Amino acid sequence: MAESLEVDLVATDGKVWSGSARQVSAPAADGEIGILAGHTPILSVLRAGEVRVRPADGGEPLVWHVEGGFLSVDSDHVTVVVDAIKAASAATTH
Predict the structure, then answer these.
(1) What is the mean pLDDT of the chain?
(2) What angle do CA 23, 84, 16 make, to 5 degrees?
(3) Nearest in space to 75 (alpha carbons), one of 44, 21, 38
(4) How far is CA 59 from CA 47, 53, 62, 91, in A?
(5) Looking at the UniProt record for this protein, which Gene Ontology cellular component terms does it annotate, in alphabetical order (predicted)?
(6) Residue 21 has what pLDDT?
(7) Do residues 76 and 6 touch, judged by C-beta distance below 8 A?
(8) CA distance 32 to 20
(9) Domain carrying residue 68
(10) Which of 26, 52, 86, 94 is the most buried (most CB within 10 A)?
(11) CATH number, position 62
(12) So what's the pLDDT on residue 23?
């Protein structure tokens, strides 16, 4: 089993962040969802809240405030598509 996830965070105007991560947390419509390597495939609607990515290299967590969208997980690849996004931490510039 893989130990990391490949993550793409995309807004309406283009890619916000892409890279390897150990964990992704997002505000799903029914509550907070946490994704680790090996997670079963899922498609979830997102509500307003924070998307958090823990990079695979152990760096500081990256945090963005989003205004809805959706999250898809398949074969350790996480795609987060958001309606609107704002950086909530200084470490989000990639």
Answers:
(1) 92
(2) 50
(3) 38
(4) 26, 10, 9, 9
(5) plasma membrane; proton-transporting ATP synthase complex
(6) 98
(7) yes
(8) 21
(9) 5-92
(10) 26
(11) 2.60.15.10
(12) 98
pTM for the structure as a whole: 0.89
Q: Which residues contact 9 (CB under 8 A, 6 or more apart)?
A: 15, 16, 17, 18, 51, 53, 64, 80, 82, 85
Question: Alpha carbon of 41 to those of 18, 37, 67, 78: distances in Å?
Answer: 19, 11, 23, 9
Cβ 39 vs Cβ 56: under 8 Å: no
24 is written with which tokens?
A: 């992704």
pLDDT of 92: 43
pLDDT tens digit string along 31-48?
999 999 999 999 999 999
Largest CA distance in the chain: 34
Number of domains, the chain: 1
What are the average pLDDT values for consecutive 10-residue runs of the chain, which has 94 residues? 88 95 97 97 97 95 96 98 85 45
